[in-house]
Every structure is written in structure tokens, then in C-alpha cells.
Sequence to fold (164 residues):
Amino acid sequence: MTDSVEHLAHSLKSEILRTVFDVWRKTANGRIGPQRAELSPAKLRKTTSHTFAVDLIDDGQDFRFGFTGEKVMQFLDRRCDAPTLTGLRGMRFFDEAEKLIRRCAEDAQPVISSPRRTHYSGREYLEREVLLLPLSEDGVHVTGLLGAFDTWLLGTHSRAEAVE
Fold:
């Protein structure tokens, strides 16, 4: 784990995302990522509802969402219309998600997307913060991703920080 990744992790605003990162880091134990089975709901405890899994398919040319926690599903308000991320292209929210997912998969490093307004239709009044973490079944190649997602009302986090 590089110092820059650790620094990014400390910059997370969401306590939920920090908890997910800490569990991932400890479980990875110096590898590029833990195996998916090593990150059980028991390990993730109260953060599971904020997490999701992404499978790499077609040698990383496309991505399919696997497990999706309850809070993520509440945000989406419905099941995705397409089974793969490329099938969701053209929607700004998923176009931005694809860029982040590709970066995590290609760089084999955690990716943090700082709080910003969401571009998901009907949820524009929210800010979101996203964490993507590589998973590896063989310890060498990224074979999937663990994601975590948190939201809050637009502007409320920055005001809270200004008071500190």
C-alpha cells in the first residue's frame, strides 16, 4: 500500500467509507486486494448496506454489478435496466461510474471520488462519496471490485466542516 493511497483514505469524509477501507486494507494484508470471499458480511458489519461488488467480465472490457447493499438500492430506487455497465452508457451517472471503475481495475489501486453532487436522476439534491477497492482471487490480477457509497444532503457536509 502506498503512502498516497493511505493519505487518500484519510481524506474520506464518510465514516462508513473509512470503515470499509480499513477492513479491506487489513484483509488485503499487503496484497493488491483480498479475495472476494474474504470480505464476508460479518467482517463488513454495519457497512454492508452501503457496499456493492463489481465483477470484471470479458477480461476487464466490461463490468457487471454483483451484490448491491440496501442503501445503494434505495439510492438507485430500482434495479438497473442493463446487466452490464456498458449497457448503461449514456446516463451521466453511470458514465462517471464507469470511469472510476476502469481506473480502479486498471491501476489495481483504491479509487476515491470525493464528495460531489450526484447526477443520478431524481437524486440531484444529494452529494455522494464513492470508494472502489480492488479484489483479487490470485493475488496478482484484479478480478473484481468492492465498492462503497455514501450520500447526504447537498452542502450539509461542507457546512459541518466549516464549523469545526
Summary: Residues 3-163 form a domain with the Beta-Lactamase fold (CATH 3.30.450.20).
